[in-house]
Amino acid sequence: MSTLVNKATSVLFVEHIVPSLALWENKLGFKRVAEVPEGDELGFVLLVRDGVEIMLQSRASLAADLPAVAAQHRDSASFVFIEVPDLDAILARLGDSEVVNPVRDTFYGSREITIREPGGHFVTFAHFTPPPG
Fold first, then answer.
1. What is the full DSSP assignment across 2-46?
2. Does residue 133 lie within any of the structural domains?
């Protein structure tokens, strides 16, 4: 059977990329592996850590590249769900991030927290405990 999908990466559209880098690079340790300018600012950034990718693109860059998409996406926030091996390590790095939903244990077996990143998007970090036995 052939592969149907090789990879999926979230693209978060933001007004300005630099404020979001405070979370993704400074707090969570993602590395910038590609960037594209848009005028005097960053228009696009690809961030990677441990095989996980997040793309940030400015709304100005989106409007220049795909105006029809930009017109329909204007104020939409995305929701990114990230499974992590150690939630306490993430909590130690989040600092003064805006917590939308504090740490909780879910009915589906995860311990998680949801924040709003500086670009306005919701990010849940979840740790799943293996079932006993």
1. --S-S---EEEEES-HHHHHIIIIIIT--EEEEEEEETTEEEEEE
2. no
Domain annotation covers residue 40: yes
pTM: 0.85
Q: What is the pLDDT along the chain (133 residues), one digit of tens a residue?
A: 666 667 889 999 999 999 999 999 999 999 999 999 999 999 999 999 999 999 999 999 999 998 988 887 777 788 899 999 999 999 999 999 999 999 999 988 999 999 999 999 999 999 998 776 6
Does residue 3 lie in a domain region?
no
Kindly state whether residue 49 falls inside one of the protein's structural domains. yes
